[in-house]
Request: fold
Amino acid sequence: MALRILGVSCAIFMGTWVLTGGKDAAPATTTSAFCKIIWLIGVPCTEVNSAIVTQIKAMGSYTLSSVTSAAIQANHTSGVGQIESVNFTMTPTSVILGCHVQGTSVSAVWYSLFDNGINFCNLRNVIKGSGLYKAPGFLEFTNEWLCLGCGFSAC
Reply:
């Protein structure tokens, strides 16, 4: 039984390590609610970038800060005036000629640690609204350690 628990613990640790690229799930100074999601999408990153930017512009609660071919930075303002920093980074994949996308959303205030999945919804709503979730080869990776509140969010 102890060996089984050790095996499961190692698998969870390795899965989290792989998803975070060997880095912490949230920035070291983060004491606020945060979310990190990784998507694999079977379309070129240029198309992914364009779809995300178009969707952010269409959503009134988002403000674009910076757009490059590899990264998109924006801010989201919730209905109660809370601000979250939302970022998407894109890296081309050679296996399926698609795109590896990493999305992060971090609340600006310390007392929002339990945000009922707002940061998860910030990312999920952009991807869903853009239609990228219907793209060939779409896969989404996250868990409660990487994305506080993802399990009980209601986007």
